[in-house]
Amino acid sequence: MPSTASSFKSRAEHRAWLAGQAALPAGFRTGTARFEFTPREAPLPAKMALTVIALDKPTADFAAVFTKNAFPGAPVIIGRRRLEEPALGAIVINNKISNVCAPGGVEVAERICGEAARLVGFGPKEIWPSSTGVIGWGLPEGAMVAALPSAVAALRGDSILPAAEGIVTTDLYPKIRRAQVGEGSIVAIAKGAGMIEPNLATMLVFILTDLAVPRAKLREILREAVEGSFNSISIDSDMSTSDTVILASSGRVPCPDTAAFGRALGQVCSDLAEDIVRNGEGVRHVIRVRVTGAPDAALARGIGKSIVNAPLFKCAVAGNDPNVGRLVSAVGKYVGPSAPGADLSRLRIKMGGVEIFSGGVFQLNPEKEKALAAHLRSAELYQSAPPKDGVFSPPIDFPRHERCVEIEVELGAGSAGATILGGDLTHEYVSENADYRS
């Protein structure tokens, strides 16, 4: 979607836009296969997509950032090891099961990588696994190995859209972003809808470029891009066990300007991060919090995260109820224990451009109440429908617009700042996660 607050009138219009962003950089191919299976842990018929992203030849120039969760999935454990390897040749991605703390999970993932390596003609340690889905279940190794030849046979070098569609779980639509730098390009896809508070979501991001950027520089640039994008979002404050961002360069096109590459990568990551929040489970409002005038960036980020993670405020936003007392309380609950000496005497807060707090007191009146409610309604992605037989219908499967609930927090105590994105908390979110496995 364009960086302006654009809108789409239909799923077909959005898919056409995605297709226009989906051309693969030189040197990459993707293929996907789908199959049915029954998890051994639960008698629940399930479907899995197995996606392969392959380079034409292995590259030494790759980077990755992973979750900080203390119980990482087997693919994260393997990926951290792979960072020390000389080359990356392909990534094997599955949805439905995240392979976290499953008995023998690392060994299963390595065997699947070994079979993929045989099929694409690369070394086993040049293949990276990546998994997302239910935590605690084991991968259906036999079914995945049987599906691999179909995924490899489907490898094509024209569009990344099938891969973007293949990696989703509860996502309502695929996510693709691209940028042009000189004669080369950066193209990225993401999966993420719930269990999203990266630090690094169950969030997977795969970024491909044909621009030749050396490994060390690529890793430095990725870390910077992630901090201002994926590490600045939260849908539900739950850090996943499987968060992964992988960046690979085929090196097919000279990079004219690494600074320009860094800016382009930062924009791609920021746009994808906002796409993830907009497509969050049950999200009807995206909340953007801009914190300025802070004494340091940590305080600014902490205040922003406290607001977008505050359950009562998120519920108020979901109901288009401008209950701004909950917003101010969310600021105070973070600053009180985290920065007790902070000077809040110059604190000013606005929502939708309307000042609601300054000089230590609320600045409210009936006209402002109406304006705030109108701002919330204008940012709503879709209207909640009453449940049928106790079940909520899924929202529309395309993003209708890019508008946000805009919150400004000015501390007047320094020059640091942060922008944090989050979502509201809806009936649909609860329904989705109450029934996730079934």
3D architecture notes:
By secondary structure, the chain is α+β, with helices and mostly antiparallel strands. It folds into two domains: 11-278, L-amino peptidase D-ALA esterase/amidase (4-Layer Sandwich); 286-434, Roll (Ubiquitin-like (UB roll)), CATH 3.10.20. It is built from twelve helices and 16 strands. A seven-stranded mixed β-sheet has the order 9-16-11-15-12-13-14. It has a five-stranded mixed β-sheet with strand order 3-10-8-7-6, with helices on both faces. The longest helix is centred in the middle third of the chain and has 21 residues, at 258-278. The radius of gyration is 22 Å and the shape is globular.
Could you write a compact summary of the structure shown?
By secondary structure, the protein is of the alpha+beta class. The chain is built from twelve helices and 16 strands.
